[in-house]
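Deliverable D4.2, example record:
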Amino acid sequence: IYLIARENNSRRIDVGLNVKGRDLGAVVSDVKQRLSAIKFPLEYHAELLGEYQERQAAQQNLLLFGIAAAIGVFLLLQVAFGTWRLATLAFFTLPSALVGGVLAALATGGVISMGSLVGFFTVFGVAARNGIMLINHCQHLEREEGEPFDLNLVLRGARERLAPILMTALAAGLALVPLVIFGNIPGQEIEYPMALVILGGLVTSTVLNLFVVPSLYLRFGKSKKEKAAIQRVYASTPTS
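Output generated by the structure prediction step:
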């Protein structure tokens, strides 16, 4: 039995269904494919509403805010480092931190939900924060403590920032472990995929900031002219 309702002087018939065992997006894709093969009478058409429509609107808003946040992060990196070179270097290494989150989502069904997207943005922010902390410390060692720009500087900077970076990852990761252990139970439809993505992303972001970022900073942190000038200065400095 269908209820014929009216909206804006038009008749409407609502057909409802619940999705279980499959991704909502995949089900909607199948429904759209079936609807495209149906020839409706003149002035009749089909619309997909409900949770799918709300999710699409939420994803669009999240995407817009995410783009704005990425631009803000890039500008903050430039302010923190004082150079566009390092800001660009740090910014384009951040997507690598998301690899762990992608692998975690694929290992648990490959569904990217709203919670997963929130988790990706969280990992992005954590990776940016750790990268700023590491590179800023290397700059401090060079400018304030007189360390020459070489391998020893980078190794010291990474070693002295090891504890803060690990503390950040462990504090965030341990708080999310119970959500992952309990699994995708009712009431955790958003928290569970978010926790999975963040845990996976924390692993790769930690590895990125402790190994990849220092190597890239050593390679691209200074231009060839700056490196040559630094070498001339230290070569001309008399040794005691």
